[in-house]
Specification:
It is built from 3 helices and 7 strands, in the order H-E-E-E-E-E-E-E-H-H. It is of the alpha+beta class and 153 residues long.
Amino acid sequence: MKTVIAVGLSLFSVAAWAQTAPACPTLPTNAGLTWEQRVDASFITCKATTDDGRQVLNVMLTARDPRISLERRLREEESTFSGEKMYWYRPNLGGQETLPAMASRRIAVVEYDDDRYAQVWINAASPEELGSLISLARQLDVHSAGAQLSAGN
């Protein structure tokens, strides 16, 4: 009976650790941002917020191809994300993508491992902040975070 209780408690502590272990990639210490994370078997969402609560960078990791159509006419900066070459795009918002408010917003989809995808959104308040966030996104490594995703979900 003691063995059953001990095994049960050790399984419970492993499950509790898995739920509290950070799933989002490490942010640089000087970023001034904190992650809000949500972990599921098939996806991980990481929302980077500023001290005043603005969400400026969102990363969704998934084992399922998001099949988001990114139009070449909306392509902007060439960059890298988690070591993979990619392009940033202005979001396609049904004709609103040319509005001044959209100038500092970007979206990208990156396949960073076999059947592992990252959808990344930037909601910058200015062109300067956009440049900073693109630079920050270049530093993120999602390989270890995405490894815990269930394939095929």
